[in-house]
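Design a sequence for this backbone.
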């Protein structure tokens, strides 16, 4: 396997130099906004009426995005909520530890998902809604710079979608929350992996990057869903934060137009494209700052 990885990297250098392989031209595009109504309207779909939208977090930590298909995350547009700086999301992945530290507190509900650990730099979008069918669906992708080095560690950045107080960001068919320690390729990669069928590796230290996005790993497109809601108004809280410390960003991308009373349409798989070879060459020649150095400096 190692020899194959090396062959791909060296082939990439040759092909890239000949101009036969190029990296994808487009990365995800971020437009910062902390306007709660803009954020909500950017994900709102059919059959849902919303009210009382609020956002709490750093203005730089949230925004809208386009170009998600070309970047490889599997959804074209929507909103991004991060535990740091949303402007760090566009690729290629040329850092092993991109981070924004906003010096803000965490969130009590997120703390409750990881007992024993504190959260920092929370970004929280909340609003009330009414569903005309009694059902709720929306698509999302979770990404993080904590992959892959901090899989199965206490540095387990956390996010949640709290519907009337209950987290609905769950691994399909389970009651297990989506998190770094619950969806990954293992640490080292391929060792003690959990739900790896839902994971996309993009770590330059583990053969990547393969996608035109900065984060070292991200999930497949998940659908949050609840059916049979009671009649009337409900509250949703979309939240993400650093855990254990306040560095190394994580993000959740929520697909535009899918916060709906009807199931979203199918979405394409993340596109690794032929440009993966060029990205492999980039990763092989780039000088990257190690996450362990950042952690040591923070300690």
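Sequence:
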């Amino acid at each position: 396997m190692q020899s194959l990885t090396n062959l791909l990297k060296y082939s990439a250098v040759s092909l890239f130099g000949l101009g036969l392989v190029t990296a994808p031209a487009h990365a995800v595009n971020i437009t910062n906004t902390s306007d709660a109504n803009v954020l909500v309207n950017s994900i709102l779909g059919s059959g849902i009426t919303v009210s009382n939208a609020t956002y709490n977090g750093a203005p730089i930590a949230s925004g809208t995005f386009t170009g998600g298909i070309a970047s490889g995350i599997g959804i074209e547009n929507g909103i991004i909520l991060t535990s740091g700086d949303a402007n760090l999301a566009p690729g290629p992945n040329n850092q092993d530890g991109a981070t924004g530290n906003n010096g803000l507190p965490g969130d009590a509900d997120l703390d409750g998902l990881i007992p024993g650990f504190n959260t920092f730099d929370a970004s929280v979008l909340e609003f009330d809604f009414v569903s005309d069918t009694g059902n709720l669906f929306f698509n999302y992708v979770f990404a993080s710079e904590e992959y892959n080095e901090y899989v199965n560690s206490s540095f387990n950045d956390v996010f949640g979608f709290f519907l009337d107080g209950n987290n609905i960001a769950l691994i399909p068919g389970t009651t297990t929350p989506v998190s770094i320690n619950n969806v990954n390729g293992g640490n080292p990669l391929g060792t003690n992996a959990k739900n790896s069928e839902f994971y996309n590796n993009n770590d330059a230290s583990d053969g990547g990057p393969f996608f035109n996005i900065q984060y070292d790993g991200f999930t497949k497109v998940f659908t949050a869903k609840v059916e049979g809601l009671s009649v009337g108004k409900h509250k949703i809280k979309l939240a993400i934060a650093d855990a254990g410390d306040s560095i190394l960003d994580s993000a959740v991308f929520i697909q535009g137009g899918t916060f709906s009373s009807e199931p979203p349409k199918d979405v394409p798989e993340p596109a690794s494209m032929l440009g993966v070879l060029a990205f492999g060459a980039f990763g092989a020649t780039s000088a990257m700052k190690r996450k362990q150095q950042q952690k040591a400096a923070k300690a």
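Residues 25-272 form one domain.
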